[in-house]
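Re: Re: ligand-bound prediction request (bumping)

Still looking for help on this. To restate: I need the protein modeled with threonylcarbamoyladenylate bound, output as structure tokens. Inputs repeated here so nobody has to scroll up.
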Amino acid sequence: MIETESLLPDHAGLARAAEILRAAGLVAFPTETVYGLGGDARSDLAVARIFEAKARPRFNPLIVHVPDLAAAEEFALFDAQARAVAAAFWPGPLTLVLPLRAGSGLSPYVTAELDTVAIRLPAHPVAQALLRAFGGPLAAPSANPSGRISPTRAQHVRDGLSGRIAAVLDGGACAVGVESTILGLAGAPALLRAGGVTREDLEALLGRLPIGGNAQSPTAPGQMASHYAPNAAVRLNAAPDPATVFIGFGAGAADLNLSPRGDLVEAAANLFHLLREADVLAQNGQSIAIAPIPERGLGLAINDRLRRAAAPRG
Ligand code: TXA
Ligand code: MG
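Reply:
Sorry for the wait, this slipped through. Here it is.
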């Protein structure tokens, strides 16, 4: 056990976080999607510590976070199409999988020795400030124990990882609330994970996008069947039922409500926090029942996470 420091995103807190990262320590930090568990992406030791802290299966590669396009181009090869996507959506909740640049200096554990790299330029001012204070690329999966619900507040990170990581940088609640969309651009464009940038917005630029990745060959932990799992059992597309903890969407009686006005953006921002709250409310083997969520816009990412939360446990 180590004592996990709580840091504020002021000058002293950012300096301390950068110092920890330079010593191959781990700092959880806010992004606009979820909190990330950051470590130096060039350090085998730091990356090994990420897998260890999360108890994460080692075959899953990590996303490399950078402050700007120039830094991204140090690690990945961009063609004209990749530059157009980056210009349209970065900084923001979109990760690009691109060919890895030779001699990138990234730890092979980050890429799982693939010849591609997942790269993201977050918009959150605290993530940006940390990347600049540290001055290098940060490997960062979501800051939760593997298979559990992703954190959207500093307290969620402390609940899951206290004693296992050096520090948490507190930047308040995450505005988007679901992880980044992952777009594969190393071959023909493919949507590898639904997330904070909608399929509709990507398709307006790129045309029809096939959905890649499946539970049999998990390139992504988010692609494994059981993930984002509360302790209680989860039932989807449910009607209100007094025997369950009911999470609603839109008008109507509910124990908790993702968005009383039926707004998918608000629902995404509330999703992981309300799953945690429902888990606290569920007593004596009660299950969690969730109202249907429309399959459009951020609803794709919400339904993807809910299906994994409801999947049979491995
Ligand atoms: O919003 C997010 O993306 C958050 C914040 C912290 O940035 N991060 C996040 O990381 O969700 P993680 O580790 O939970 O998800 C990373 C995903 C995994 O599903 C992994 O398989 C995929 O990225 N990935 C990483 N490198 C890849 C590659 N070369 N090819 C295909 N998928 C890759
Ligand atoms: Mg995750």
